[in-house]
Amino acid sequence: MNRREFSALLPLFAAASAFDPAEAQNAPSPTNLTKLESGQYVEGAPRGPSATGRTQSRVLIGMLPDNIRLEAHVTTLAPGAPPEPIEHHKHTEMWLVREGAISLMTTGVTRTIKAGDVGLCIAGDEHSVSNASKTEPASYFVVAVGPPE
Questions:
Q1: pTM of the entire structure?
Q2: CA distance 75 to 47
Q3: Is CATH 3.40.720.10 what the domain over 32-146 is classified as, yes or no?
Q4: What percent of the chain has pLDDT over 90?
């Protein structure tokens, strides 16, 4: 293998180092999401905590009519957990804080969202979430609605 062939493989090595098999196993692909129906959905078993102090449990993920993807999960952040990476999606996300407080950055503006409050990030806007406390956990319910990704 020469240098050119080796350098062509570098993106694959980078992707493999970021790959988390546990996450991949729990995340259905957009092509095999089930059609959601009216009814009750129960919170699943928690996954985590991850190395970043984040524990998640899925409530539901699937497709609504008109090719709209709906996901709901609960996340708990340990005290002092680092912020998630800044990202943006094709879907809109809403955070309903259950306990503690989170710092929600949307489009460069950071707000403290407390228990009982709701934060919203419109599709395409940059955002990041972190625990606003260094001593108490924060827990929030996430609802994501938008096109399949």
A1: 0.76
A2: 9
A3: no
A4: 72
Residue 62 bridge partners (DSSP): 70
Read out DSSP for the chain?
--HHHHHHHHHHHHHHHH--HHHHHHS--GGGPPBP-SS-------B---TTSEEEEEEEEEEETTTEEEEEEEEEE-TTPPPPPPB--SSEEEEEEEESEEEEEETTEEEEEETT-EEEE-TT--EEEEES-SSS-EEEEEEEEES--
Amino acid residing at 74 = V
Measured CA distances, 95 to 8, 9, 33, 55, 66 (Å): 40, 39, 22, 15, 24
Instruction: In whole angstroms, give the CA distance from residue 84 to residue 131.
Output: 10
Write down the domain spans for the chain: 32-146
Structure tokens at 82: 């680092």
Q: What is the pLDDT of residues 19-59, one digit of tens each?
A: 333 443 455 555 689 999 999 999 999 998 788 899 999 99
